[in-house]
Amino acid sequence: MKIIDHQRIDGVIPNARAQRPFPTAALAHFDPFVMLDHIGPSTMPADWHLDGGTDQQPRLHPHRGFETITFMLKGNMHHRDSKFSERPLLTNGSVQQMNAGSGIAHGGDMWADEQQQFHEIQLWVNNPAKNKMSEPSIHNVSDANIPVVKVSSRSGEVMLRIVAGSLEGVKGPIKTFANIRAIHGIASGRQTVKFAQPQLETTHNRTMLYLLSGSATINGDLIKQFQAAAFEQPLTQLEFTATDAEFLLISGQSLNETIVFGGPFVMNTDEEIEQAKRDFAMGLF
């Protein structure tokens, strides 16, 4: 197990603090996951609004070659993109999956919730080489449609929101090309969470527990807010104690393919990155 500290990336969303567990100098990627950005939690200025442009002239940025999973924990976003006319609303507790595939440009208006809170996670999941040029798609899931598994004791309770993959026969609504599981957990009090076979995916050789708030103890080590515990081998059991914590638990099966970043593009070769830049410049997204 490695304990990973974050890199501050304030400014990704104006007026909000932000942190990135990876990619950093300490952890280049976590194959099949290529980036994890955590925005907030922040109390935003009164009437804060990030302008995404208009329907006629939206402010969009491009992607190709991977999928995003956006967790809108607190706040709102009206999504815009270059492929679909619908403008779905992401609000407190909702999740969006976007397959950038062969190319999509997206953006949108953002504003805080009724308590002026903004809190978001965006997880980038790499596409296998055979799926990098797949058809782009958007899938929004409301808070009410994310299944929950609860674990409780006299000392506390943890709510496990199953976003992708499955746990104890409960399947999450998000399905990616890569073989992954993503669970958003909220612990009140002090609660121990245990995973053992067959609760752990035997094909998953990457597992990460990232703390959005509070603290957790795993294998005797204390994990604090904005830190992650990273395992780079298959696990036969996983046990941690969360104390008044909010966390993201992700695991996946490595693709074992070359990863080449080119800003908003994630491909397998430098030539593919250059082609993505040309295609976007030519208006093909």
Please give a quick description of this structure.
This protein is mostly beta strands. The protein has one helix spanning 270-281; strands spanning 2-4, 7-8, 18-22, 33-43, 49-50, 61-63, 66-74, 76-81, 89-90, 94-99, 104-111, 117-126, 137-141, 148-153, 156-164, 166-167, 170-171, 180-196, 206-218, 221-223, 228-231, 237-252, 260-262, 265-267.
What this model shows, in words?
By secondary structure, this protein is mainly beta. The chain has one domain (2-252): Jelly Rolls. A hairpin with a 2-residue loop joins strand 23 and strand 24 (265-267). The mean pLDDT is 94. The strands form 5 sheets. Strands 1, 14, 15, 18, 19, 20, 21 and 22 form an 8-stranded antiparallel sheet that branches. A 7-stranded antiparallel sheet has the order 2-3-4-12-7-10-13, with no helix packed on it. Helix content is 4%, strand content 53%.
Q: Please, how many helices?
A: 1
- Supply the number of structural domains: 1
- DSSP, total strands: 24
User: Can you summarize the main beta sheet?
Assistant: 8 strands, antiparallel
The radius of gyration over CA amounts to: 18 Å
User: Which band does the percent of strand residues land in?
Assistant: over 45%
CATH superfamily grouping: Jelly Rolls
Low-confidence stretches: none
Structural class: mainly beta
**CATH T-level fold name:** Jelly Rolls
CATH architecture: Sandwich
Overall average residue pLDDT = 94
Report how far the terminal alpha carbons are from each other: 40 Å
Into which percent range does the helicity of residues fall? under 10%
Give me the strand/helix succession. EEEEEEEEEEEEEEEEEEEEEEEEH
| CATH secondary-structure class | Mainly Beta
> What sort of overall outline do the alpha carbons produce when their principal axes are compared?
globular
